[in-house]
Amino acid sequence: MGGDMIGQEAGASGEAYGRDELAELLDASADWTFEIDADGRFTRVSDNIRERAGFHPKMLLGRTREEVFGTIALSPDDLARHMALIDQHKPFRDFRGGFGAGTGSFRYFTTSGFPVFDADGTFQGYRGVGRD
């Protein structure tokens, strides 16, 4: 099996997934990937967001989720729970929201992410995936 071995635990076959296999699994499970810094600004967005969600990654870079998407959630309770997780630097899963696509239409999405901390335990931001 080629590529670097990732993870400390082996799978059922006795081998951990390599980087190539993880990239394939990620691509199969998400429409795009993102990174957000500790200030809540997008620092990386995968290029496939253009094809799968209809807008260029540069539209997101340097902007906060609120600037890009507003605070549009499918329910106010979902938004409140989501923001509480973000404020506490906790993982979130399947947050459902939407945004105006600029064409008069409305796009819906779900995102999941996990917090990233440095070696000293300082919060660095989030890494996550989105689906359109």
State the CATH class. Alpha Beta
CATH topology description: Beta-Lactamase
Task: Tell me the total number of β-strands.
Answer: 5
Uncertain spans, ≥5 residues at pLDDT below 50?
1-10
Provide the CATH superfamily: PAS domain
Question: For the residues shown, what is the average pLDDT?
Answer: 78
User: Sheet bearing the most strands, described?
Assistant: 5 strands, antiparallel
Plain-language structure description:
The chain is of the alpha+beta class and 132 residues long. The protein has a single domain (35-131), classed as Beta-Lactamase (2-Layer Sandwich), CATH 3.30.450.20. It contains four helices and five strands; from the N terminus they run H-E-E-H-H-H-E-E-E. Residues 1-10 have low confidence and may be disordered.
